[in-house]
Design a protein that fits this description.
With 84 residues, the protein is mainly β. It contains no helices and four strands.
Length: 84
Amino acid sequence: MLIDGRASVQFSGERALWLRVTSICDKPTYHGWVWLTGYSINPATDNALARREVFAQVAGLRIQRNTSTSPHHNKGPTTRRRGV
C-alpha cells in the first residue's frame, strides 16, 4: 500500500512509503482515519525494511496488488507425504 501525502501530511514528498500491512487496529479513532501496522518495503526488491505503525486517512491510501512473478509470491500447491 502506498502511503503518501494524500494519506497524511507526514508522508508527503520524499517521506512517502510503501507499507505491507499486517494488521488494522479496530479501536475507534477520528472518522476516516485508521492505525495500520506493517512493514515498510523497498518496492524494487519487495524486501521489508522496518516495522512501522502509521496513522493515515483511509481515503488517501493507494492499494497496489502484488504483481510479482518471483517464486516466493506464486507458490503452487504443496504435496505432503503420509506419515510425515
